Amino acid sequence: MMEAELERPMPMPLLLADKARREGERVLAVFDDVTFTYASLYDQSMALAAALAKRGVGKGDPVIILMGNEPEILVSMFALAYIGALAVPTNPALKGQSLAHVFAITKAKYVIAGSQFLSRVDEALSDGNALELAIVVGRNYIPSQPKEERYADLMAEQNPLPKLAMERADPWMMLFTSGTTGVSKGVVLPHQQLSSTSWDIAHSVFLDEDSVFYTFYPLFHLNAIIFGPLGCLISGGKTVVRREFPRENLLNELHQYKATHWSALPFLLRGLLALPPRPDDRDIALKIVMCIGVTTEMIDAFEQRFGCKLVAGYGATESAMVGLPAPARICTAGRLNPRHQLRVVDEEGRDVPAGKVGEWWIKTHHVYDRMLGYYNMPEATANAFKDGWFKTGDLGWRDEQGYLHFTDRVKESLKRRGENISTYEVETVLQNYPGVSGAAVVGYREGPGGEEEVRAFLELSPGAPPLDHAALVSHCARHLAYFMVPRYFDTGMQLPRTALGKIEKHKLKDYPLSASTFDVKAAGIRVER
After folding, report:
1. CA distance to 212, 235, 282, 375, 510, per residue, from 239 (Å)
2. Is the dihedral of CA 64, 84, 70, 452 positive or negative?
3. How many CB atoms lie within 10 A of CB 196?
4. In a 10 Å sphere around its CB, with 0-12 CB exposed, 13-18 middle and 19+ buried, how is residue 450 labelled?
5. CA–CA distance, 365 with 370 (Å, rounded to integer)
6. Closest by CA position to 414, among listed 374, 454, 474, 449
7. 323-358 residues labelled b (16+ CB within 10 A) or e (exposed)
8. CA–CA separation, 427 vs 90, rounded Å?
């Protein structure tokens, strides 16, 4: 890739309009029950844009999108882009305090939501946030309040299309972080960053007009957005977006949809390798699978069985792809993206030599190839930068050939089944439970190959009654996404603290399970999604 090619790819909404004119009948995206050509996606997004503009939605207005992997989420993203509004695709598993936080930060007056999520929206707004308009997606839904309108009714209108209201530097999406160093933050991404990142991905993993990118990852994650619809819009390929994780039918679906590209978590690869070999394993269309955190043995076994290549890279929502996928060096975090500069620094912010571990700080050559900041959080935005360098909070090193090697996270985060979790948010909910005076949440693995689980260590107030674990789990489920609810609870111990009273969580990470550890799964308690 030449530097000149990397500089300014066309913003995605303009590219969609261009391709709708030139090759409108070409398929871009296949959802469970809806297929979008360039023309149909453009036409539907423009119809929604005109209807939203008629109702006063305009430049800079944050609009929360709350639904699963439905086709309406893609239409909404492009509609909001055209009128210059800020699309806020939000995890539909959020509820209670977690969803209320999103509304509190964005101060959003508009929401586009699946009908099944309206009760969560009402609950999240109970603290006084004003909502002017709720666009409800649901075939049989009948509006129950004046502020509600059916998505289908808006799409049936014939409204004049307003003038295009976006520039390369304008914000397009706000994606919420997992809140690894505090509360979740809304990362504001400009059009230029999303188009540049999608261009980089398409070229680095060789997406072309014959490619089929398969995903069931949620479209409120940057991974699914840029690898799927946007990367395929750049390349001319097709993306298949599934509503649900197909579980035991995954391999059949990869065959069925003739997927050439896929982004996978390690447990998915292990699951496929555990299946009995099939005569058609080598007939699969897969060419490239993007994955991190896999062993050399797993790489060899998967590539030999399915005849594809596994690649790895490194990125963050704030900075997008810093390490571009590198097929030749899978055990690295890719090679530095030419759009980025990288510093590896010690705790004092001093550069360390190649081969030495330090925190990664990055800077883009063009300011709009990174986030614009954290929405309504000027202090957090300022703290994230040092002299123009974004402090990733991640540790790693760079070798003499320029390949990146990720080693750990400075931030106190953990990942469960592919979902990043803010331990801070879980601890806040736990400490709001009667009788709990202190909480520390860490990740726990049973053995080196085990999946990371959420584990909570609790201090109880003096004189507090014995803990009702079922009631505590119910409390957590009311205020947290299902994947954030701890599996293990430990009580009856004094949490280790520094002289200033801060809990030393690193001392708890390898603490073995004991007879007094409460295991939610073993107790048969099921957390509803």
Report:
1. 5, 11, 22, 30, 41
2. negative
3. 27
4. exposed
5. 10
6. 454
7. bbbbeebbebbbbbbebbebbbbeeeeeeeeeeebb
8. 21
Give the pairing type, strands 27-30 and 35-37.
antiparallel
Domains along the sequence of the chain with CATH: 3-176 (3.40.50.980), 314-409 (2.30.38.10), 413-519 (3.30.300.30)
Over the Cα atoms of the chain, what is R_g?
23
* Cβ(199)–Cβ(9) below 8 Å: yes
Instruction: Please name the residue that has the structure tokens 């750990």.
Output: 408
In one-letter notation, the amino acid at residue 149 is E
- Integer Cα distance of 369 and 91 in angstroms: 24
Judged by DSSP in three states, 124 sits in: helix
Question: Is the separation of the CB atoms in 247 and 272 below 8 Å?
Answer: no
Nearest to 85 by CA among 115, 120, 111: 111
Does an H or E element contain 13, and which? helix 12-22
Q: What is the pLDDT along the chain (529 residues), one digit of tens a residue?
A: 444 455 688 999 999 999 999 999 999 999 999 999 999 999 999 999 999 999 999 999 999 999 999 999 999 999 999 999 999 999 998 988 889 999 999 999 999 999 999 999 998 986 566 899 999 999 889 888 889 999 999 999 999 999 999 999 999 999 998 654 457 899 999 999 999 999 999 999 999 999 999 999 999 999 999 999 999 999 999 999 999 999 899 999 999 999 999 999 877 887 898 899 999 999 999 999 998 767 677 888 999 999 999 999 999 899 889 999 886 566 688 999 999 999 999 989 999 999 898 899 999 998 899 999 999 999 999 999 999 999 998 888 998 888 898 876 676 667 787 777 777 778 888 888 888 888 899 998 877 667 789 999 998 888 888 899 999 999 999 989 999 999 999 997 888 875 445 677 878 888 889 989 999 999 999 888 8
Instruction: Compute CA distances 480 → 13, 95, 105, 529, whole Å.
Output: 34, 6, 17, 10
- CA pair distance 225, 78, nearest whole angstrom: 12
Quick one: DSSP state of residue 97?
H
The CA–CA distances, whole Å, from 28 to 44, 123, 214, 238, 283 equal 14, 37, 12, 5, 24
Rounded CA-CA distance 101/206 in Å is 39
CA torsion 4-18-190-310 (nearest 10°) is: -70
Q: What are phi and psi of 64, to 5 degrees?
A: -80, 130
C-alpha–C-alpha distance, residues 45 and 371, integer Å: 25
Region of residue 307 (left: phi > 0; alpha: psi -120 to 50; beta: else): left
Q: Alpha helices of 143-245 — where are they, by DSSP H?
A: 151-156, 191-204, 222-225, 231-235
Share in percent of the chain as helix, strand, coil (round to 5): 35, 25, 40
What gap in Å lies between CA 27 and CA 409, rounded to an integer? 40
